[in-house]
Amino acid sequence: MIITTTPSVEGRTITSYKGIVFGEVISGVDFVKDFAAGLRDIFGGRSKTYEDELLRAREEALREMEQRAASMGAHAVVGVDIDYEVLGQAGSMLMVTASGTAVTLD
In the sheet where 76-87 sits, what is the strand order? Predict the structure, then answer.
């Protein structure tokens, strides 16, 4: 399936719009990961722990969106947008949402 941030697929014609599709992931960061990231905050540098968690959540949200589009009979998802949000009292939850328009192509 084609997944793109553009409103169309070059060289293809959109033949029907199936609707808006979403993929959402809410991920918690455990105490050990949070502690390690806190050390990076103090001493500087990149937090591989949080980067890995963000990558996993983004890929999972995109995969879920793609599965929902496929179940609608779509060939592609256009206009894809990915949003990130921090949730929870201590900001220990990460929400990643992928959305786009499921379409069929010629």
Answer: 2-3, 76-87, 93-105, 14-28
